[in-house]
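Sat 14:20. Reprocessing the chain from the morning session after the first attempt stalled halfway. Input below, unchanged.
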Amino acid sequence: MAIQHDSITDPNIHEPKGISTASNGAMYFADGAGSGDWKRGAGHAYADMDITNGTTAFALAAASAFTKLNPTAEWQSGESHELTITPANGEITLTVAGTYLIEFWVTFDTASLAAGTKYYFKYAIDGVTATRQLSVQKNTAGVDRIGAAAHGIVTVSANQVLSIYTAGDGTSSGTNITVADAGLTALLLKET
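Finished this time. C-alpha cells:
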C-alpha cells in the first residue's frame, strides 16, 4: 500500500534531506531548480567592536597613505556570534564565508589645520582597502570634532579579516587625530 508523503503522521515523519550534515542554525534555501542547500541566513553570524571615550592620539601616515585605524588599546569587544573580534588589532575575522552588511561610524578630534582639510576612511579585507571611501573635512582652522558614518555590502571567503583604514589629504597627512567614539559592525546577510 502506497502512502502519500503529505499523509505521513507522527511518529513516522522524518527530518528533511541533508539535515544530518547541515550546520547548526542553517536553513534550507531552494535554488529554483528543484534542489537547494543548507545555509545560515541573515543575522546568524555577527560582531561589533567600538571605541568609547577614546583619548589616544593616532598618527595619520604621511603622503596620504592609508593605515589601519588602531589607536593603542582603544578598540573594545562588543557582541559577537560565530565571528572573532580582535580588539588589540582593530579587526573582526569573518569566519563564515558569505555576504555581509558592514557598518562603520566615528567621531574624532582633528589638529588645528586649515578649514577644508580632508580625512578619508575605507574598509579593508585582509589589509586590502576597498576602492570606495568616505571623506569628511574640517569646518574651521581650529580643532574640530568631526563625525562620519558609512555602510556597505561585501562578499568574503571564510576567515577573511575586516578592518578600517584611514588617511589624510596633503594637509592632514602626518598629523594626529583622536578618535573619541567609533564602531565597526559585521552582520552576515547570506552564507555562500
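The chain has two domains: 5-40, 46-191.
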